[in-house]
Amino acid sequence: MKTSPESARPADLASMPDGWADLLSGRHLAIVLVMASGVLLYAMNLYFTAALLPSIVADIGGQQYYAWVTTAFVISAIVASLFVSRILDWKGPALAYAAAFTVFTLGAAANAASPTMELLIVGRVIQGFGGGLLAGLGYAVIRAALPERHWARATGVVSAMWGLGTLFGPALGGLFAELGLWRWSYGALAVISLLFAAIAQRSFAGMAGSGHRAPVPVASLIPLVLATVAISLSAIVPMGWPVLAMIGVGVVLLWLFVSIERRAKDTILPHITYRRGNSLKWIYLTVAALSAGVMVENFIPLFGQQLAGLSPLIAGFLGAVLSLAWVIAQLFVVSVESERGRRRAIRLGPMLLTAGLIAYGLLQVAGADMAMVLIWAAVLAVAGMGIGLAWPLLGVAAMSSTHDPAEGGKAAAAITTTQLIAFSITSALAGTLMAAGGEFAVDAARYATLGIALLTLPGIFAAGVATRWLAER
Question: How far is CA 182 from the centre of its chain?
């Protein structure tokens, strides 16, 4: 892909403007706006639709397909994210974004017009594909469209959209539901998406792709998608051996995916992921651990209402604490300039996340008073800070893992693939753990939270190994 016109000789870099003022001005601002808006559309849509679903079911029926409205969207997005680097390398960012926003628009319009739940799910598949492209492009385009001095800040802005999506998505969805305008909500999304398709065309003008059309790695694509589907199904099959069977099948398929990737010529993840002495595999594992921790947000409002008798509004604010801490922490950490300081932040992130989740899980009690709720908020803030400290720096580390533009784009796009797969798997496992807690809300809360903490725990080890390799690079 052609490099950004902002690129320059190393001798000239010292004289170039740096910091937020340079990033958020001129053409840089337009580029960041498109990238951030694409990720925000995807992130917000997950929670936006969750708030609308009761109204949708009341209008068109189909309660038996309730879970599939989200599952179809996420699985389609995972598949789309696997094609991001190929589309970007082939056609460039302008056409890639135009295609992504257009597909998202078609899906949103189909949702708005759906007379039945079955057709709504078809619309969600289309919308999810566009959303997966938008989420992946948000990271992948940074390397090609912006100078390296802005990678950390741009990654922080794009990453912050995931937190903002969890803050505003439920509120906007709830507002449209309250007004009885769920169809209008998807219509509004379609119009906004079309607007950004036009903005993207202007923002990325002159940045063409290489024209290289890489083959689709079907051999590794199939087991990865099937693994995600199998583990997602564990949340909706009957408890007992069917759950264990689905999880077992998913784990075997993930192992098969890695085995195929290690030997294949055309891969989903960059080739360097599987080389000895490279940090990329450990970066992805750390991203997966942090992504697993994010999913506890889906359950915090429920636990707050059941265990502390909080109103839906206050419980929603409690659920937003983790996202708010995440956004604030990462907007500070992206200004850290020293490599040593960045490595420390990456190592500290999973530690704080795991410690916060363990504390939150152990502190779950029935009949909790306001003092306990404030303690919950404090430990959730610690967990959110952990995500924010490490997340944007891991994105920069992935982008910097190779000097090959094609492999670098693939490395950046794979962050989103890793993230979406971790979201899907963790959500399914957490739902299964809640069901295992039985009728007691305290047990369900503890099982789900501590189970997610077990998934984030390996991130401490992965971050340590990743930063060690980064220091030796």
Answer: 24
